[in-house]
Amino acid sequence: VVAPTYALEHKVFVKDALCRWPEARLWTAPGQFSFPVQQVPEAFVWGRAVSGELYGSDAAASSAAIPWTDDIQFETLEAGTFRVGGATLTFFETVFYHMPSRSLVVTDCLARVPLAPPPQRLDQDPTATRP
Questions:
Q1: CA separation (Å) from 69 to 14, 50, 117?
Q2: 69 and 94 in contact (C-beta within 8 Å)?
Q3: Residue 49: Cβ within 10 Å count
Q4: Are 5 and 92 in contact (CB under 8 A)?
Q5: What's this model's pTM, rounded to 2 decimal places?
């Protein structure tokens, strides 16, 4: 189970998922309780301790303990540093790429998609795959 960003709406079902799958491990992006409330005990929020925080990327040496990196790549992005409620907070989001299905999984970093599609580039084959 992954809590990929600081935003409250992405945390609300994590505890229920952990109850449903009691053997699951919990991975989080850094700074889970930097906003809206700071220093909330993990056991209160999640019902258990966090298995690990997703710093950097799957290519980092510290990711060796993460069991799913053979199939799923990740990158933790620094979304920005802001003054919120009198404190300076850095927000993070972890994005994922599932290699077998070639699926990109994001939450808030994809915030705006224009209604009109961009012009097609005729010099590129849209069906071509890239390494």
A1: 21, 18, 33
A2: no
A3: 10
A4: yes
A5: 0.72
CA distance 106 to 104: 7
Query: Which residues, 6+ apart, have CB-to-CB distance to 24 below 8 Å?
Result: 1, 17, 18
Which value, in Å, is the radius of gyration of the alpha carbons in the chain? 17
Instruction: Determine how many CB atoms are found less than 10 A away from the CB of residue 26.
Output: 19
Helix, strand and coil content of the chain, in percent to the nearest 5, comes to 15, 25, 55
Beta bridge partners of residue 95, listed in sequence order: 75
Q: Is 66 strand, coil or helix?
A: coil
pLDDT tens-place string over residues 48-99:
888 988 988 888 755 568 888 889 999 998 888 888 778 788 888 999 999 9
Structure tokens at 125: 């084959």
